[in-house]
Amino acid sequence: MIASSDPRMPILPFKLNQDRRQHIPKQKRKVMNWREYDASLRQRGSLTVWFSDEAIEGWRAAPRTTPGGHPWYSPLAILTALTLRAVFRLALRQTEGLIGSILHLLGLALAVPDHTTLCRRAETLDVPRPRPRREGEAVHLLVDSTGLKLCGAGEWLLEKHGTKTRRSWRKLHIGMDAETGQVVAAALTTNDVDDGSQVGPLLEQVTASVVAFTADGAYDQEGVAGAVAAPHPEAAVIVPPRSTAVPSETAETTPTQRDRHLQFITEHGRAAWQKASGYNIRARVEATIGRFKQVIGDGLRSRTDQRRATEVDVAVHALNRMLELGRPISVRTA
Q1: Residue 23 in 3-state DSSP?
Q2: CB 301 within 8 A of CB 91
Q3: Residue at 31 is within a domain
Q4: What is the DSSP string of 70-131?
Q5: Do 100 and 153 sit in the same domain of this protein?
Q6: Domain presence at residue 322
Q7: φ, ψ for residue 214, nearest 5 deg
Q8: How many CA atoms lie within 13 A of 92 on its CB side?
Q9: Can you state the angle between helices 305-324 and 75-88, rounded to 10 degrees?
Q10: Within 10 A of 18 (CB to CB), how many other CB atoms are there?
Q11: What percent of the chain has pLDDT over 90?
């Protein structure tokens, strides 16, 4: 590229029209419950650990009534160990050592699950899902996806020897309750799976009724609208149409939700549509993905797909538990 001799001409070509662009000022917000939220943030890092009487009694597995081997540890014990592993980003052997030291400091005569048991039981562990807020209360579901690296020899070779290798990764799909901030659905797939194809599996994990479904432009597909309408026919589908989108053939007689979105954008513009439809609330699910990668990490440590799925479920369970300690209540000031 030849540099311009005009001193008023910017060097970077994408800033040529910056004076004529529409600059949207950043919102200013104030946290109204800062004292409680500040205390909850400190509590998330607290090392205070206790075992309730129910947890002590439920540490050992219940007697098996069918033929086969008898497990030593209950799902509660395995979930406790794997949760500590996810939060502190430990390997399985270090997790075994941490559980052993905690039980020793508490003076509890409980057996410690070894690392091979944790690895094997992670294959079939059933992680509990968050309970609905109140019976019959609808959920505004926010959906998005992100990539998670696979930690292994490939990453080590790249760091040690600078070897060029094809990095493998998995795609994490999450569905978040817009009101509570909790992740109510999660799915782990390969990197070649389309985002829209996972809407059905995510909705199957949501026990409450869905009043609205919000996602980005990658979900602007006919199959997505059908997947939402099948179990929740009254749900609003808030997905921005693509720039090349055209109305359907029945837009004049029986317009779909997408047709009404297109008409509003044509008449008032995309920015006005985002504000009127409430699409901007989708930023909360992006913040949740950022919190996932900051607290849990951006990679998967397990070696099989089923254990990776359990690793994700345990991580989501830990994040939801942290969120129960407290979350900010903010209002816009400017």
Answers
A1: coil
A2: yes
A3: no
A4: PPSB-HHHHHHHHHHHHHHT--HHHHHHHHHHHHHHHT---PPPPHHHHHHHTTT--PPPPP
A5: no
A6: yes
A7: -125, 130
A8: 17
A9: 80
A10: 10
A11: 67
Using the 3D structure, point to which of 77, 94, 121 is the last residue of a domain.
121
CA separation for the pair 143, 175 (Å, rounded): 5
Q: Could you give the CA distance from residue 97 to residue 103 in angstroms, rounded to a whole number?
A: 10
Beta strands 169-177 and 183-190, pairing class? antiparallel
Examine residue 32 and state whether it is found in any structural domain, yes or no: no
Letter for the amino acid at 252? E
Do 100 and 241 have their domain in common? no
Statement to judge: residues 116 and 144 lie in one domain = no
**CA 134 to chain CA centroid, nearest Å:** 22
The DSSP code sequence of 149-185 is EE-SHHHHHHHHH-------EEEEEEEEETTT--EEE
Structure tokens at 143: 């959906």
Model confidence pLDDT, tens digit, residues 124-180: 999 988 776 667 789 999 999 999 998 765 555 666 666 555 568 899 999 999 999
Per the domain annotation, does 320 fall within a domain?
A: yes
- State whether 80 and 227 are in the same domain: no
> Residue 258's domain spans which residues?
139-332
Q: Reduce the secondary structure of 24-65 to three states and give it as a string.
A: CCCCCEEECCHHHHHHHHHHHCCCCCCCCHHHHHCCECCCCC
pLDDT digits (tens, 9 = 90+) for 96-107: 999 999 999 999
| 53, 143: one domain | no
